[in-house]
Amino acid sequence: MTYRRWFVVGVAFAVIGALVAAFAVFYGNFSPRGYVEDRYTRVTSRDIGRDAVAYTSDRTPSQVAKDVTDAWKPADQYVDGSGVYLRYDDDSLVILPIAAGSVILLERMRTAYPRYHSTVGNHWGWGRGSTVRGGGPGAGK
Question: Of 79, 88, 92, which Cα lies nearest the Cα of 119?
Answer without folding.
Answer: 79
